[in-house]
Amino acid sequence: MKIDDETLNKIYDKTRGKCHLCHKKLAFSNYGVPGARGAWEIEHSKPKSKGGTDHLNNLYPAHIKCNRQKNNGANKSIRSKHGVRNAPLSYKAKRKKVIKNAIGYTATGVAIGRIFGPGGMLVGGAIGAILGSKRKTDQ
Ligand SMILES: [Zn+2]
After folding, report:
1. Fewer CB atoms inside 10 Å of the end CB: C or N, the chain?
2. How many Å lie between the centroid of ligand 1 and the Cα of residue 8?
3. Of all helices (H) and strands (E), which one includes residue 114?
């Protein structure tokens, strides 16, 4: 499959430069260089043999090694070997999740702080926001 740099970048950024099967770092410059450190290639999340397409939403970056291991199998079986369930989040999805966590924790903090009156609500909300934004969202 012939691919231009822009598409390559888009696919690489989909997982923040991580293999979508094992979540370890890929080396952008080692695209299609078997044996190189962090060597990767574009992987069809749904194999073409199973009706997967060449659309961007079906393409993910993966180590050449991981991709070979997957062969025509399921993402799930390779990921479970590495103790992960989903593809790593994109920058955008990750940012969204951080904001969502912060909002959720702020609301919880305000609710708890309410017991202690208006001052408690402020303190509780602030603590919640800090906790929420620091929550681990990486996958
Ligand atoms: Zn991998």
Report:
1. N
2. 17
3. none
C-alpha–C-alpha distance, residues 139 and 129, integer Å: 21
Please give the pLDDT value at position 14: 96
* CATH, domain 5-88, list 3.40.50, 1.10.30, 2.60.40, 3.30.1370: 1.10.30
| pLDDT at 1 > cutoff 70 | no
Please tell me the distance between residue 122's alpha carbon and the centre of ligand 1 in angstroms: 44
CA angle 33, 12, 71 (to 5 degrees): 60
User: Token pair of 95, please?
Assistant: 């940012």
The count of other CB atoms within 10 Å of the CB of residue 7 is 14
Instruction: Tell me the whole-structure pTM to 2 decimals.
Output: 0.73
Q: Distance, CA 22 to ligand 1 centroid (Å)?
A: 4
